[in-house]
From TrEMBL, chain A:
Main location: membrane
One GO-annotated biological process of the protein: alkanesulfonate transmembrane transport
Name of the molecule in the record: ABC transporter permease
Keywords: Cell membrane, Membrane, Transmembrane, Transmembrane helix, Transport
Signal sequence bounds: none
GO cellular component: plasma membrane
Family: Belongs to the binding-protein-dependent transport system permease family.
Domain ABC transmembrane type-1: 109-289
Transmembrane segments: 50-71, 116-137, 143-167, 174-192, 228-250, 271-292
InterPro entries (alphabetical): MetI-like, MetI-like_sf
Native source species: Bradyrhizobium forestalis
Pfam families for this protein: BPD_transp_1
Gene3D superfamilies given in the database record: MetI-like
Amino acid sequence: MSSPALVRHPEDSMPATAIAEAGSAPAATPPALPASFGTLALRWYRLNRAGLRATAIGIISLLAFLLVWHLLTTYRVVFFVRFTNVPSPLAVYSSFTKAMHDPKFLMHILLSCRRIFIGFSLAAMIGVPLGLIMGRFKLVHEVVFPVAEVLRPIPAIAWVPMAIMLWPTNEQSIVFITFLGSFFPILVNTLHGMSLVDPVLVRAAQCLGARERSIFREVYFPASMPHIFTGLTVGMGVAWVSLIAAEMISGQYGIGYFTWEAYSLVQYADIALGMIAIGVLGLGSSLLIRGAGQLVMPWRSR
Amino acid sequence: MNEIAAKAPQGHIEVKSFSLAYETIEGPVQAVTDTQIHVRPGEFVSIVGPSGCGKSTLLNAVAGFLKPTTGIVTVDGERVNGPSAERGMVFQQYSLFPWKTVRENVEFGLKMRGMSRSQRERAARTLLGLAGLEAFEKHYPEKLSGGMKQRVGIVRALATGPKVLLLDEPFGALDAQTRVIMQQILTNMWQRLKISVLFVTHDIDEAIFLSDRVYCMTARPGSIKAEIPIPLERPRQQSMMMSSEFLALRRGLMSLIREESLKAMGGEINDMGMQGLNIELHGHSLADVI
């Protein structure tokens, strides 16, 4: 019995080897001459040129935004929109340095973060499993889906009066509203991910002896993971929107309350400070989720 | 004698008075009618036929994904009631789990069987080595070429030691050169493992080159039009594709299929169309040019 087939054919394996090498660090390619620091830096620059360019333009764009803001406020421009009372970037910066030494400001931020953490975690812990189960079991889908579809379009802010009636404390109703805001995007995206699972993969698993539970764990769950993370990212954004609205209406403490209170107390610089803090916190939590996604789905990062 | 009987290879597929119909709003549509096929233990059997003739339907019924409307499918006398690891399957659309590395994909069936981590790791490494893939065990499928993906697919299906291997146009998406290499790899593994193979393809050269026997199906509703034994000696070489024996088999099969393809197209074809079809069929496989 000869075995000509096991001789690896260059046509077939060559391109893949090339791909494999492209993935590793340039210094690891054996035939390359020992590269000096200069050539390495040059190579790094060439490979990352697009990213560097984006970063540079991003920084310039942010600086331009600050400059325009500065000019509009120092000259108190009135052109349809009135910048007369809008604080300048420098005023906001000075109130920022003051706030950094103010334990009350930090407490506002910490409280908001805590509400987001609890509300969002609950939404994820209920929304993801519910979506997975609804995607797999028709009956659960048929029972839950109509209710979800009716409740989904109601904005979280519209829930404020109801939440105050439902929950004994203000804190609980704010967390509840944060939960509601993130729950539906998480649920809907998980469901969407489940509906897109490639049936061939399910059949392949069945042919390899997988039973219902294993198929759920090994196929449906990882296959919907990208959509679950889309849901978590969107859900996190809506959680912040809902939280700030709830804090402005019924809060004591919290960054939304801080912003609204600054308006009542005519501390205009603090309004902008509160807004920027919300922006930065929202951005930071999105980045956290994206990072978690890359950790959990190594097959999607390149 | 006794020893041979004890070692009798398994994997005897039998499909008897098989038919399968789909329910539609206009009533049932017959996909396959009145079909009998069998695969003897260790035999390599192909099914060819015009597209839409129900050859994949038949294969899916053997795999256990589809229930026959009438008739029965058995493997070693046991009725097929659903998919199982006894019948390994390779799909045209690679079907590797994108979230698992090459080795984890191969290990999947063993994991389902409850084999310990270290044992299945060793088994997967050995199998990947046989297919020349050991260097890629930690890669995710996305980074592999089509031919490599399908090699992993075959190795994965074989890892659990199935009685039969079912392949549904596994090389249909590959370029001609890769396809030829894959055919040799498959023959080689089949000869080593002495496993029964049922292979669905629309590529006549591929069917003849690989098989002990070829079933040719009619246009929809599909049934067996002819059963052609392939007496070419083994191991088969690429050069055999130029032999007069091979070409005679090819001519015979080609005319059978052409008849059915024309039927499938509903007789709308005039002389011009006939010529066009001819060219298409002859140019179908580049393998005979090599």
